[in-house]
Structure formats: C-alpha cells, structure tokens
Amino acid sequence: MRTILVTILLFTLLLAGCGGTTGETGGLTVDQVTANLSLPTDTGAVYMRITNGSAADDALIDAVVPGCGTVELHQIIMDGDVMSMRQVEGNRIPIPAGQTVMLERGGLHVMCIGKTGEFTVGQSVPVTLTFETAGQMEVAAEVIEPGEEAGGMGDN
To answer: Do the Cβ atoms of 39 and 148 come closer than 8 Å?
Structure first.
C-alpha cells in the first residue's frame, strides 16, 4: 500500500511540473496551462495550448480565474515598433477544426485585470474555460516565475 501511495505522489509531482492539468471536452484538449500572476501588480496572464481534434470549428469565449476581478481574452499587436495589448474582437478566440492555437506570452492570452487574490510561484490555480460549442472545461494553471516561458515541459 505504501508503494502505491509513493508512486501516486511521484506521478502527481511529475504532472505538476508539466504546466498545469490537461482538460478535454467536445474534441478539444487544453494543456500546458501556466499563469503569470505572481508579480505585485494588479494584472496577470494565463497561457495554454488548445487543440481541436474535432471536425467542427469552436472558439474560446470566456474564462474565469478566482482572484481576478475581470478576465478578458487578449492579444498583443505590433504596429511598426509599437507593441500594444487589447481585447480580442468579440472576446472570442477561434479554435479551427483540426488545429492547435497557442495562448502564449507576446500573443493571445487570458488577461487577469484587477487581481483580488495573492498568487505564489508553484501554486495551482483553477481556471474555468467556456467554449462556444464544447461548453465548459476545468483546468488548473501552474503559477510560473514572471520571466519563465509559458508552455510547460517544452513539448510545443
């Protein structure tokens, strides 16, 4: 019995090092979920990889992160040498059939505005994602060091 418990604990720790938990619903798979939320500012971001293994298009249309006052779907835009961030049109990120969409630093991401919670590196934060067709999915984001690359174990 003790060996089984130790094995389960080691497996859990290994998964925790891979950047959050994986979720799956309606042909969509979400993995490499990380959160840049530990800076002493009132904003932060959540990153992930969303793969649509179905034959139908879908879209991420909402996210809920406890400890975030407002959550919006954002993108970074380059206009010449000027970088700006803004909410995606219609607060909707398309996830085309058979494709993978990365939410990552410098691109698309889930934006936490008006943090009300305190987040620490290594903490697991629940994230509820809402998709247009597939519905809701629960995943967990690992809070990463602010300078750390999002994406878990590097299996892009």
So the answer is: no
